[in-house]
User: What shape does this take?
Amino acid sequence: MMIRSFFSLLVTLVFSSNLYAYEVQDLALLKQTVLDYTDQHYRQAFGEDEFDSKVKIEVGGLDVRLRLAKCDDNLSFKLIEPPHNPHNVTVKTSCNGDKPWTVYIPATVNVFEDIIVANRSLARGDVLQEDDLTYKRVNTASVGRGLMSNMKSVKGMELKRSVRAGETIRNNYLKKPDIVLKGQPVVMSAKSRFLSVETTGVALVNGHIGERIKVKNDKSKRVVDAQVVGPGKVSVAVR
Assistant: This one.
């Protein structure tokens, strides 16, 4: 019985010796190295000033049970950015030493931006004015796409849906307001190098500036395509 116990202990010691015969990688140091690499990558992408004011990188933890051969001087990295979610990235980290290994370490790219939100509750069809809007600093990693940050591009746009006070204004909530309405009398202009003609007609559909709509000429009764160029004004192409 004592001999069997001795051999069992010996086998255990030999196995343990073989298992940990190499120096183990410090996981905390590895995580910091990955963080430094990712920081540097995005620092170059954003620029020093913008990175410092807007960007914060967080690297995910590593399983403490993970046993990797030490490889501080032979590491290589590859950043993997999924196109559908550029905030959640993965850093492929490889050891190119005598005992090679590869691990995939997740990281989150937090980008803080001043985005436009509603200053008060607004209804569908409201045309946005500057007093209706304000800026709020948010982590864009947590609020999705289509955010608006340029007040000039939002001011004067029409809401396609209602929004609550404090809610973000997104690109797909907006459309150009109709400045010509169905049934409205309009001035129709046609210009060429040698001729400029104006007549009147009636809009057959609503239209916003720059949009092509159907218009009925009062005199000829013909229906033509015309481009909305201003309130109550359309332009007809001359062939």
The first strand starts at residue 55 and ends at 59. Confidence is low (pLDDT under 50) at residues 1-19. The chain has four helices and 14 strands.
